[in-house]
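User: Here's a chain of 124 residues. Predict its fold as tokens.
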Amino acid sequence: VQLQASGGGLVQVGGSLRLSCAGSGRDFGGHALGWFRQAPGKEREFVAGISWSGGVSYSDSVKGRFTISRDFAKNTVSLQMARLNPEDTAVYYCAAKLGTWRSYELPNVDYEYWGQGTLVTVSS
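Assistant: Prediction complete.
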């Protein structure tokens, strides 16, 4: 079972970037999928999550700027990021956990599968 994150890179303040995470080894249709990030010197934090039924949850810091989506056919989850600022600079990780989690539970799910991370750098 593997999650492969991609799409990170260098972007200027105010720019946009789209991250993708592809799952392999199992069908993630019945899983909650999430995006986390870890900035240098900081703890990993929840960014966004999407439930098996399409319910979503966002951290306050990205709400209104980031959009999470999933493609059941492709077994992928994506994170569309807009109006990026230097505080968004971090390594972004995708994660998955089997279960019918409600959207309000997504930040606190004990995610089981993790991708390797992709670096997003926002330059000012």
